[in-house]
Design a protein that fits this description.
heterodimer; A: alpha/beta; six-stranded mixed β-sheet; B: alpha/beta; twelve-stranded mixed β-sheet; ten-stranded mixed β-sheet; 35% strand
């Protein structure tokens, strides 16, 4: 279980989050909602350990281990996966070899050969609607927004984390692609009993994932905690219901 | 990232062997030293006078002040000539043991067996080993030490020697012209394609050593050669000086590729003048990897003299710690339809500084000339620097110069992204850097691309506090 206890976060000395507390359990799906600029992505990046997000008070723990000061790679190796809102490109880094390196990192005992891995990868990429030629290109270099989001999903399939943080994974995807990746994430969540924190503005995506808890964030604080029944209210009257 | 500090990674070629010499000039430079070198080499009056003239130019010229700080060079402290052995070996067994040991450690004899068409090895001031495939000799290819060439082919040498880098070109070209020793001479006859690369390996072993080789390549019409040079030196607390002059003549329809893996230790001032003249439809390509040295100043220049001549400069600089690498290129378009492409990639890390300095000049009458310059700088931490000094002059209305420059600060987003995928900071940095240099590394023969990647990774290895 990931626990956030009274977390306050500042960037360049400016306070963004104020006294945030919630838990994310294995198998639990939480949606984090709120107006633009309310601090949703800050929570995502803080959980992943971005060095620019300074935790000024409070504690983050994972299965009772204090990870407040852990670097991003240590958190990733404990099973936290952040699907980025705007995934970067890394020119010169071949997609297939990058994914193979992730695979080896997270499954050191797996006796999969490179060619077995490649055929598995091709299958998964195909089912996500990723054109096979993209796998031979340089990572996200010249990729569309939608293609980059699909690459995020492909990476989570390779690393098989315990907790997913999805920061607007749905943005940039067309309606068919949204369905495809939603169903794939749903299956992964089921197979691995994932804890998922969803940040989204898309009611459609929430329909697919069916979060059991909704947190509404305003001005860096959690203002409302509710269940799925909040979604139609937000859809009807925004965050000022 | 904010909480990280680095240590300098070890330089693996920093070993030294005991000094061996059969002759060494006295410390410092004077007219006597210049004369001594010429007399020792039994040179004719022409070269003797050439050297003395150059020495005067060297004395008369001030240190260039437009680039890195050279005030630390103490010319009086340097040994300008050291002869390590009496003769050049043609098998490795003929090379004195303690010298051969060095090249074994550097892997040269092995590389020679596997993928080179010919090898020269320079130790201190002289070529101490040379080989060339029989097939190439039969085809009339000449690959010999510069001193030997001057004795054996004086007419051929004087036709080109000092013609595109005259002895008064700049202070360090003058110094080289005065005290030059060693280096390689290559002549490729018409329409001969040399399939396997020819390589010269330069090694400085002694303290306070100056190495001043001359390289002269003449590729006759329709020929092709790929020449590779590598260089290393031991780590000393005192400084050494490497001031080379390279002249390349690319005749009509010929192609020359010149690859350098510069990996001097960080006590070497590396101040090199490299220039090529390219005739009609000839192609000159420089692939220039700069990893080592304390200060480097190097701007391979291309005089595009014939119609449709093409020049290409691909350079990488990795500046770390105290290093200041000032590298770049020049393209001088003098004829119609000439084209040039300059791609410069620099990486600054651990406090290092890398600069791109380049000139593109298109003269009136060079109709439809085209030049493209791309400079990408990657700065990996807040203590490191990168600068760009491009100069473009176009006097021809139908010609076109394109310039793109990007500076990626730190790649902080990339670093975070890769670390959030489970990679350590060192692994993530290496992935970013290897990706960044990939377009140039892929131009190298496989063995060298592996070596360059390995050297870069070695330089990347920092320890995280």
């Amino acid at each position: 279980m990931i626990q956030l206890k009274n977390i306050s976060v500042s960037v360049d000395q400016k306070t963004i989050l104020n006294n945030i507390s919630f838990n994310l359990k294995p198998g639990q799906i939480i949606a984090l909602m709120g107006p633009n600029g309310s601090g949703k992505s800050t929570i995502a990046l803080t959980l992943a350990g971005h060095p620019n997000y300074q935790i000024t008070s409070g504690k983050i723990s994972l299965d009772k281990k204090d990870i407040t000061k852990f670097s991003p790679d240590r958190r990733a190796n404990l099973g936290i996966f952040l699907a980025n809102q705007s995934p970067v490109a890394i020119p010169g880094l071949n997609v297939k070899s990058f994914l193979w390196q992730i695979f080896k990192k997270f499954h050191p005992d797996q006796k999969l050969s490179l060619s077995e891995f490649r055929s598995w990868l091709s299958f998964e990429a195909d089912s996500l609607g990723i054109k096979s030629e993209l796998l031979d290109r340089q990572f996200n270099d010249g990729f569309s927004g939608g293609e980059r989001k699909k690459m995020e999903v492909l990476q989570m399939l390779v690393s098989q984390p315990k907790y997913l943080i999805l920061d607007e994974i749905d943005s940039g995807l067309d309606i068919d692609a949204l369905k495809t990746i939603s169903l794939r994430i749903q299956k992964l969540a089921h197979d691995l009993n994932l804890g998922i924190l969803i940040i989204t503005h898309s009611p459609k995506f929430l329909d697919y994932l069916q979060p059991t808890q909704i947190l509404i964030l305003k001005k860096g604080q959690i203002k409302t905690i509710g269940d799925f029944s909040l979604i139609p209210k937000i859809a009807a009257s925004g965050f000022n219901f | 990232m904010a909480t990280t500090s680095y240590q300098k990674s070890p330089y693996e070629y920093g070993f030294s062997n005991p000094e061996v010499s059969v002759f060494k000039t006295q410390q410092g430079i004077s007219q006597d030293v210049v004369k001594t070198i010429s007399l020792l080499k039994h040179e004719d009056d022409k070269m003797f006078n050439f050297r003395l003239r150059a020495y005067q130019y060297f004395i008369d010229q001030p240190l260039p002040t437009w680039g890195p700080d050279l005030s630390g060079i103490n010319f009086a402290d340097i040994f300008y000539y050291l002869k390590p052995t009496d003769k050049e070996g043609h098998t490795w067994e003929e090379v004195p043991l303690e010298i051969k040991d060095t090249y074994d450690k550097l892997g040269i004899p092995q590389a020679e067996k596997e993928f080179l068409g010919g090898v020269k090895a320079q130790y201190e001031s002289e070529i101490i080993y040379g080989s060339l495939m029989k097939k190439l000799k039969k085809q009339g290819v000449i690959f010999c030490g510069m001193d030997e060439a001057l004795k054996k082919y004086p007419k051929l040498v004087w036709q080109y020697f000092g013609k595109i880098v005259p002895p008064d070109d700049n202070k360090f070209a003058s110094l080289n012209s005065a005290v030059w020793s060693g280096g390689s001479f290559i002549y490729i006859p018409k329409n001969v394609h040399v399939d396997l690369p020819l390589q010269t390996y330069f090694r400085i072993n002694s303290q306070k050593m100056g190495q001043f080789e001359r390289t002269l390549i003449v590729a006759d019409e329709g020929s092709f050669v790929h020449y590779i040079e590598g260089c290393t030196a031991p780590i000393y607390s005192t400084d050494s000086l490497h001031a080379a002059v390279v002249e390349v003549f690319v005749k009509a329809n010929a192609r020359v590729r010149y690859t350098t893996i510069q990996n001097w230790s960080t006590n070497v001032y590396n101040l090199v003048t490299k220039r090529a003249q390219v005739d009609a439809h000839g192609v000159m390509e420089w692939v220039d990897g700069n990893l080592g040295s304390k200060i480097t100043m190097k701007y391979p220049s291309n005089i595009l003299a014939g119609k449709g001549a093409h020049a290409e400069v691909l350079s990488i600089a990795v500046a770390s710690g105290i290093q200041h690498l000032d590298a770049g290129a020049k393209a001088i378009h003098l004829a119609p339809n000439t084209t040039s492409r300059i791609v410069s990639k620099s990486i600054s890390l651990h406090g290092g500084r890398s600069s791109y300095r380049g000139t593109v000049y298109i003269s009136q009458g060079a109709t439809n000339a085209r030049s493209k310059v791309v400079c990408d700088a990657l700065i990996l931490d807040k203590n490191s620097h990168s600068d760009t000094y491009p100069t473009n002059k176009n006097s021809e209305s139908s010609a076109f110069i394109e310039h793109e420059a990007t500076v990626s600060k730190i790649g902080e987003d990339q670093l975070f992204y890769l670390m959030s995928r489970g990679f350590s900071q060192t692994e993530a940095e290496a992935m970013i850097v290897n990706g960044f240099v990939e377009p140039i590394v892929k131009e190298l023969p496989l063995e060298y691309s592996l070596e360059l990647n390995r050297l870069i990774n070695l330089q990347m290895e920092g320890s995280i506090a």
